[in-house]
Amino acid sequence: MEKLLNEFVDVFGKDIAGTPEPSYLQEPRDRFFASAMPLLRPRSTRQVSEIVKLCSERDIAIIPYGGGTGLVGGQVSDAKKNTIILSLERMNQVRDVRPLENAIVVEAGIILTNVQAAACDVDRLFPLSLASEGSCQIGGNLATNAGGVQVLHYGNTRDLCLGIEAVLPDGTIFNGLKTLRKDNTGYDLRHLLIGSEGSLGIITAACLKLFPKPKNTTTAMVVVPNPVAAIKLLADLRAVLAGNVIAFELIHRQGCDFLVETMPQVRQPFQKIPEWSILVEVSGGVSVDLDMALEDALSEAISQELVLDALIAQSQAQADAFWNVRETIPEANRLIGSIASHDISIPISRIPAFISETPVLLERFGDIRINCFGHLGDGNLHYNVFPPKGKDRNDYKHISGEVQKVIHDQTHEFGGSVSAEHGIGRLKRHDLEAYGDPGKLSAMRAIKTALDPKGIMNPGAVLAQN
Ligand SMILES: Cc1cc2nc3c(=O)[nH]c(=O)nc-3n(C[C@H](O)[C@H](O)[C@H](O)COP(=O)(O)OP(=O)(O)OC[C@H]3O[C@@H](n4cnc5c(N)ncnc54)[C@H](O)[C@@H]3O)c2cc1C
């Protein structure tokens, strides 16, 4: 480590090359820990290119690092030698805002909330929104093709990106920073780099789509009798409210119970915690009275017994309180400590069957608790399994892999995906091998070899090393 660091200090100086704080060496769920290695913090794309060129010449591996909020261990490597962390944190500027084109050009290290704020400053919306938005960076969001709570309407990060600037594994700068909506000129490197989790290059800047700011937003918390009703409600609301349904989040009683157990200060919307509830958000332009439209749609749903109870937020504070319940459930999960957690997607129409059949398969593991929640509107469930109350997850380590296999096998059986929005990283590379399409896998390996023949870009992430 010392010798490698000194080599980088000699070339780039102490301002750029240094030793990482411990926070760079672990990830949010403490599942992966990185070895101590030099930390490079370049200030420009040119510097990123020079660092990568040096690494390529010297066969030094690079772990690209954004906000460090990734949940699959892509940003932490336990390689013992010849590896550096390359953090984009100093490349955090807005380069250009073009409200007339509904586009913004930002550097990769900008924190997501700062992109949202820059859009807001010109009366536009950048809709990517996730609970980690105060720490994650747009480069990390692109590299993981992050999802979040508004995918239902705006798509995931891939759908929000018009162009990319990146440094390829030999140090070449790829300048694809176009604001064009139409550019049909051969292979789209942008889409190859998005979701590649730092394994094909380093994203240094991006041109992102902006949208008109909704003038009108209504948020409701709705009790549904079961997931079948929830799916029907989603279809009905989308039909009646056209493109105005922005978020449709499933919450299970278990998640609220965890909040009561770990964060009792979080206000529960309903006096008696319901078995299943939905947080629904609709938004649109000035001419639509969304409060009324949503109220009418929910009244109709109540008459059809799709909805048992509903609260429409009467103020922004109440809407925030509803969101707070949804957004703090992952932290409550973390405090309880899961045996195994899963970020899966299932074809929406098959979700009720998945939810009713999977616990039966898990019965053999005895007294466990399941918290199944997530972005139901996108078919994305976070299906997490916990020990019984009062028991420690560490006592269940021996069954963790088996539990995960049952759930991933079942997901595969249902035509789903074992990684809906978090990516593959180091956590799921064997799942990719097990469940991935063989044709896709061999094409992925060929692409990796072609672009990164020396294998220096985030080795061991996404594709297992041979
Ligand atoms: C509380 C919490 C809530 C979350 N909610 C969601 C959610 O709703 N939806 C969702 O999708 N994710 C969610 N996540 C996961 C995480 O926030 C996202 O994956 C995010 O996009 C990661 O961004 P980051 O900047 O932190 O990247 P990092 O964690 O630093 O890196 C993630 C991966 O991207 C690579 N990378 C980072 N920057 C670059 C770059 N500039 N160029 C190339 N590769 C790069 C890294 O090598 C690594 O493989 C959540 C995480 C937390 C902690």
Question: Descriptors for this entry?
Answer:
single chain, 466 residues, alpha+beta, Uridine Diphospho-n-acetylenolpyruvylglucosamine Reductase, domain 2, five-stranded antiparallel beta sheet, four-stranded mixed beta sheet, 14 helices, 34% helix, globular, binds flavin-adenine dinucleotide
In short:
The protein is about 35% helix and about 20% strand.
Summarize the structure in words:
This protein has 466 residues and is an alpha+beta fold. It has helices spanning 2-12, 45-58, 112-121, 138-144, 151-154, 189-193, 227-240, 253-262, 290-303, 316-336, 351-362, 397-413, 429-435, 438-451, and strands at 17-18, 39-40, 61-65, 83-87, 94-98, 103-107, 124-125, 161-167, 173-176, 202-209, 211-212, 216-224, 245-252, 276-284, 309-312, 343-345, 369-375, 380-386. The protein is globular. The protein is built from 14 helices and 18 strands. 34% of the residues lie in helices and 20% in strands. A hairpin with a 4-residue loop joins strand 5 and strand 6 (103-107). Bound molecules: flavin-adenine dinucleotide.
